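Review form for a predicted model. The reviewer records the input and the model, then writes brief findings.
Reviewer: anonymous (R2)
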Amino acid sequence: KLASLVNSGQASNCTFILTGDIDMANSPGYIPIGTDEHKFMGTFYGNGHVISNVSISQSGTSGVGIFGVTGNTARILDLGVENATVSGKDYTGVIVGNSAGTITNCYVKGNVNVNGNSYVGAITGQATNTIASSYTSGNININGSGYVGGLAGYISNISSSSTSGAINITSGSQAQYIGGVAGYLINAANKSYSTMNINVTP
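Model under review:
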């Protein structure tokens, strides 16, 4: 419902509050919220609730996650995601595919697999704004060819965040910009760290 409203341009700048946990185990064919044409520009309060068993399969599409594309006024706060498999092209992450807004006090944990090409991460593929007080943990596997990171493949600003798990790079010598926290970080990582294992195979 939310995706259809935002993606058609009807509710891009609204505030939404999650009032309970959501189990997506029986929700095939999930459509990400926000597109390049109609970005999610509003506020999403997770309220400490959890979205679990996320499955998104759009390997030919860029901007893939629970939120596909968010604009610079978007805020996603206090949201947990447990157990997720997300496949996209470029700009692929569990919470947001391509984030120009802020992500605060969010986590992704459990059995997590994120598969993409460039700009791939467990929280978001790209964050041109800020990620704060967020983390990943558990059996985290991220697969991509470039700009791949534990939180995001590309991050402008990050603070008080951490990652654990594994990053698997399949392009061998062509791989570039790979990191435990971020593949490519513009500014300093304030009070942030990673214990991820990074594996590169040809």
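Findings: Residues 41 and 109 are 26 Å apart (CA to CA).
Further findings: DSSP finds one helix and 22 strands in the chain.
Recommendation: see findings above.
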